[in-house]
Amino acid sequence: MADKNSFDWARFPAQHEIEESESEADVSRIFYECAKNPGHVNFVPIKDFNLNHLPEDCRDEELEHMVKCLAAQTVKLQIGWVSLERPMCDPITESTYPFYDKRGSRSIRLGTGRIRRVAKFVKGKDKYGMSHYLQLHYCPCEKCVSSGERRDVWWEIQILTARHVVYDNSEAECTSCVLFYDEDGDSNGSVVLKGIYAVYSDSLRDSCEMTCITCDQALAERLESLLGEYDRLKESVHAKYKHHDGKLTIIISHPHGMSKRVTLGSWQERSSWASDKNVSQFTYSNSTCPGSSGALVYIPGLVYSRLYYHHVHSGCDDNGISRSGIGEEEFSY
Asked: Per-domain residue ranges for the chain?
């Protein structure tokens, strides 16, 4: 396993892993006909995940708790528009950029993201007294707009994914974010939120942060509790695994748009910027499928602040090696 001091630009993913689908029935068919991972034997449904799925030397209740906490923050993204601004070529590899040929269409794609922040707004101001980015004063969620209600308290949920999944504002506005989709065919516990804009996007890092909105206080408090739980666990988990020889890597995603699955592997190669070794990219052995793009690449040996842009799954190279986008580490090796 290697640790490089600079990025090998020619080895960025040649194949991104977005799923394209027209219906839920189509999603199920594609999943069961998958040629890349027939049977998906390495994909553990989150509802079945337990301590025994972890490697023997990693069977720790705190780590199991962390996986389930991160799973609760993982969302399915359904994007219903292809931006007119998608470029012809990837800025790094110069290969054809995903869905360039479908710009301006309503082609439906499926990917994964992770909630990284929840921000409360009261009368257009956040807790620091800063005015809203779009100068909003009332909740713009679909429920409030359609009912004519003018609620002046709302929460914005920021989700990090890959830029090739959600490219820009126009795609963020046409994205449905499905929270708590944990069992195939059962949407009773799921919550669907509509995207409103992209806060940040970077093709070089293959990273995009988009925002959803809700005025449901109970939902917002549930999400804030999950994020607080992550903050409480991250340091102690890191202390246990920072020198772990197996380089354990965990990915939680929505393969083919199905419910959450967990795959385990190990990171194989780490590249970093010469000027900032905390800015890095990884390759890893985890199984992934179309629909996994944008998922958090979680390495217990690293500390990830939620305020940093973490590593997300970007795709595979021609040899089938999985690669992340460029992310930030709070702790340097």
From this structure: 2-328
- The DSSP code for 130 is P
Q: Which helix (H) or strand (E) holds 194?
A: strand 191-202
Question: What DSSP string runs through 203-257?
Answer: TTTTEEEEEEEE--HHHHHHHHHHHHHHHHHHHHHHHHHTT-TT-EEEEEE-GGG
Q: How many Cβ atoms sit within 10 Å of the Cβ of residue 105? A: 12
Query: CATH classification of 2-328, choosing from 2.40.10.120, 1.10.10.10, 3.40.30.10, 2.60.40.10?
Result: 2.40.10.120
d(CA 86, CA 102) in angstroms, rounded, equals: 9
SS3 content of the chain, % helix, strand, coil (to 5): 20, 35, 45
Query: What pLDDT, in 10s, does the model give residues 165-184?
Result: 999 999 999 999 999 999 99
Contact present, 35 and 73 (Cβ < 8 Å): no
**Residue whose tokens read 């988009």:** 210
Cα separations in angstroms, 152 against 156, 168, 194: 13, 27, 18
> What is the three-class DSSP state of 172?
helix
Cβ atoms < 10 Å from Cβ of 308: 16
**pLDDT tens for residues 67-99?**
999 999 999 999 999 999 999 998 777 888 999
